Amino acid sequence: MYKVKILGAGSIGNHLANASRRCGWQVAICDLDPAALARTRNEIYPSRYGAWDEAIELYPVGDAPESVYDLIVIGTPPDAHVDLAIEAITEGPRAVLIEKPVCGPDLARAQAMFDLAKERGVQVFVGYDHVVGASAVHALEKARTLGRIETLDVEFREYWGGIFAAHPWLDGPQDSYLGFWKRGGGASGEHSHAINLWQHFAQELGAGRVVEVSATLEYVKTDLVDYDSLCLLNLRSESGLVGRVVQDVVTQPPRKWARIQAEDGYAELSIGLEPGIDRVESKLGEADAEEHVVAKTRPDDFIAELEHIEAVLEGRSDSKALHIERGLDTMLVVAAAHRSAAEGRSVYIDYNAEYTPAALTTH
Questions:
Q1: Using an 8 Å Cβ cutoff, are 24 and 42 in contact?
Q2: Is the domain of 70 the same as that of 154?
Q3: What value does the CA radius of gyration of the chain take, rounded to a whole number of Å?
Q4: Any domain includes 307
Q5: pLDDT digits (tens, 9 = 90+) for 98-130
Q6: I need a labelling partner for 275 at 20 to 30 A (CA). Which of 61, 85, 144, 346 fits?
Q7: Domain region containing 134
Q8: Could you tell me the pTM of the whole model?
């Protein structure tokens, strides 16, 4: 049985606590704010999952035992992720799971965190759970049968009102990191699942990493907020694959969609096409299109994420889908997007410069 410590008693902390318990693991949730711990026990967890689970331990930060956990989860706002991850790695768990995005687009101390994890032998994962969902796995399986990939498009377009509905203690984006792109919020950070899914499909299909980013962003800046509401990206990979990513926080109803177009057909993924339903449509050559439907609940996303991590830790999988390198690769693209939008030109990623701003060049 794994022992899990979750830092942050917000929405993601509750989701991962429930998923951990459904995996049969022991769970402790920690938060700086006693009110957040009370809200978890009395409101969030019972309203979502039917009743409070008395097996879950609640601790103010600093009161939880140290060096006894197999997995430490960082479920705080992104601008605290790296510092907390470094502390967690130092504690010596088998693994650390960081909620997406890993950090802000300044990439501050990202390489130091990466190096420390490697030095201490701690595996670090990032919570881009869509790439390990059953529908994305099926879409990738279909795409492998379609010959050379010609282009790839991914969109995560979703009005963020649903986020605030799930966080009723927030009145709007100004009350959290969400309203500030430099803190990891805005469309580029909050919906970076789309960038990550594009990268995942590209790498798994042999097209390599993203090396060129051309971006247009729409910023909303007032006395209260400074975020991007729309993030449009044209991407080129190491093999020359060209495609597109769109992320926004304004589209209603949401559209979470990906299309892998290949020389012999296509695979198209629709996430949340209907409540509780993902769909994969695929077509090979002259054959009729096939449809594969995946029924799921929101908790299923997090259970799949934890089961994936467990399989990697137990040596039953060598997948890199949630590995820290993939998560930091996504942050390089986010950082490149903001620079491209600011300078009005393409930005190139040099992976030899590691996970630092020096990796971004304009030639």
A1: no
A2: no
A3: 20
A4: no
A5: 999 999 999 999 999 999 999 999 999 999 999
A6: 144
A7: 130-295+323-361
A8: 0.97
